[in-house]
Amino acid sequence: QTREHALLARSLGVSQLLVAVNKMDTVDWSQSRYDDIVKKLGLFLKQAGYKDIDLSYIPCSGLGGENLTKAVSEPKLASWYKGSTLVEQIDKFKAVERPMDKPFRLIISDVFKGLGSGFSVVGRVSSGSVQAGDRVLVQPAGDLAVVKAVTMDDSDNTCGFAGDHVTVVLTGMDMAHVNVGSVLCDPQNPIKSAMRIRARIVIFNLELPITRGFTVVFHYQSITEPAIIKRLNCQLNKNTGEVIKNKPKCLVKNSSAVVEIEFERPVCLEMYKDYKDLGRFMLRQGGHTIAAGLVEEVLKTKSKTEENSTE
């Protein structure tokens, strides 16, 4: 499971990792055991695409609280470890650049009715900003709403920026039209409601080859949607990205390809070249992650007829 999580993290754009080597007290703070873990896990993480400079390891004990927030006090650990605490190392992470200049996007992770008028949605601002008084478009419903208030960390704010986790109070629309996975966006630059996409995928381990009609579960942001691989466009060289075979009959493990994916319901997403955070996804089947992908193009969006039927 640790291996799968590392692959998922790298595929979803996590470029820095801190490994908490926990329960060191159960091996009597053995340096040789710590070194063995660092060596074995480090080798795999490099194969997953991580560089040494972006990896750090912290020996600790969650149960005893050793080396989490305070300097090492355990004599056996202090005899060989002179590095940072877990929290100190977290504070050393390089700040991620946020797309402040792009149109507003917020993927909704929760919806609830408050005590006052309107209702609240929770999510992370992926790009742009939002403030009280803004008119926003809720996709894929296609409804307009007015932002009544924005709060963060249980304190009232007037606005939220890219990277912030916020609660937004909305008025002027029916709460029944909003679901987890819906998106608040700029009405002048709305997010796409896709029914079919072309994507570049990297396949991990899978038992059966991927063929046309292969069913998967599409994991994206806070949603999971059933989907079908409708077309195998081409197989790619995993290292260079060059096309090595057009219209392959099947795709096997540890390969890379361009495919077309179709959804049963519209999925709000963006192309990777425009919004990196909103252009990544995972494919799962049978409880296992079988591929990671990047959205290259939206081939089909929700029709006008479908839009009108939701009003």
UniProtKB/TrEMBL annotation:
InterPro entries: EFTu-like_2 (IPR004161), GTP-eEF1A_C (IPR054696), P-loop_NTPase (IPR027417), T_Tr_GTP-bd_dom (IPR000795), TRAFAC_GTPase_members (IPR050100), Transl_B-barrel_sf (IPR009000), Transl_elong_EF1A/Init_IF2_C (IPR009001). CDD domains: HBS1-like_II, HBS1_C_III. GO terms for molecular function: GTP binding; GTPase activity. The keyword Glycoprotein does not apply. It is found in: Cytoplasm. Residues 197-295 form the GTP-eEF1A C-terminal domain. Pfam families: GTP-eEF1A_C, GTP_EFTU, GTP_EFTU_D2. The keyword Nucleotide-binding applies. It comes from the Eukaryota. Residues 118-185 form the Translation elongation factor EFTu-like domain. Coiled coil: none annotated. Keywords: Cytoplasm, GTP-binding, Nucleotide-binding. Residues 1-91 form the Tr-type G domain. One of its GO terms (cellular component) is cytoplasm. Belongs to the TRAFAC class translation factor GTPase superfamily. Classic translation factor GTPase family. EF-Tu/EF-1A subfamily. This is HBS1-like protein.
